[in-house]
């Protein structure tokens, strides 16, 4: 079941095509990574989903219904460019924004106090936003995004401005929100965060979707069939089912580190047996491409095809 589906979304700004027939399916209770270089079309797509702007062609479905104003309360949005009122006190600002999302004054108050306790923000109610550090402001902004308990949460570079401790805090909250039924669209340039958080991804480049699907399937499809083996001893004999890409001394004396490449038909167990019969294996692992490597490969591939 998908919480959000976009069908052939296109958007022009004059003669500039910002989004070109982009179709996506966001599964319920998923963390969906929306990736792409600057200017790829991610922000345009997010603005259409939030009904800030409207597509020229295509449609968006939210829980199977055509997206409309009634769905605004079901979506939470944390923009990359933050929008807090600097002169307002934290408590009154959260009260205002919570009620703007349809919560009663009582509900808003209760939920603010819940998040203040959860984020160790006791005593922040009377603080002015302008007196907070960037990281502290980010905490407030995150609370405004999730205060009304949205079922779809859109986070645009949510870790910007956070130190490692608070970044881990927000990361844990994202996992907790998903466990409690929310779906998350996560837009970022930080590939290490995609590796850690996302279970589905889509890559947009120059207004077009060029890749999407479950993260594990994408990584599996982009495997290079290479293996890194560390061993002790002298390797005797050759094999015609692998090619040595690199060989160097290992981290410790007497250890050799070798990277080999096989054809897709060769089983890893056969490769491992070849080495076990000849040397003492210290470590054996398949080299799985990182999301950063896949990202660069696909974007450069698209550029080279032009």
What does this protein look like?
The protein is of the alpha/beta class and 306 residues long. The protein is built from nine helices and 14 strands. The protein has helices at residues 42-49, 90-100, 105-118, 134-146, 164-179, 191-197, 215-221, 268-276, 291-304; strands at residues 2-13, 16-27, 31-35, 57-62, 65-66, 75-78, 152-156, 183-187, 200-205, 208-214, 226-232, 242-249, 255-262, 280-286. A six-stranded mixed beta sheet has the order 6-7-8-3-9-10. A four-stranded antiparallel beta sheet has the order 2-1-4-5, with helices on one face. Helix 2 (90-100) crosses helix 3. The longest helix is centred in the middle third of the chain and has 16 residues, at 164-179. It starts with a strand and ends with a helix. 29% of the residues are buried.
Arithmetic mean pLDDT:
90
Q: Between the first and last Cα atoms, what is the distance in angstroms?
A: 37 Å
Q: Report the order of strands and helices.
A: EEEHEEEHHHEHEHEEHEEEHEH
From the alpha carbons, calculate the radius of gyration and give it in angstroms. Answer: 24 Å
The total count of helices amounts to 9
Q: Name the beta content range.
A: 25-35%
Major pleated sheet? 6 strands, mixed
- Extract low-pLDDT stretches: none
Shape: elongated
Structural class: alpha/beta
What is the number of beta strands? 14
- Strands of the largest sheet, in order across it? 6-7-8-3-9-10
How would you describe the oligomerization state of the chains in this entry? Answer: single chain
Please give the share of residues in helix: 25-40%
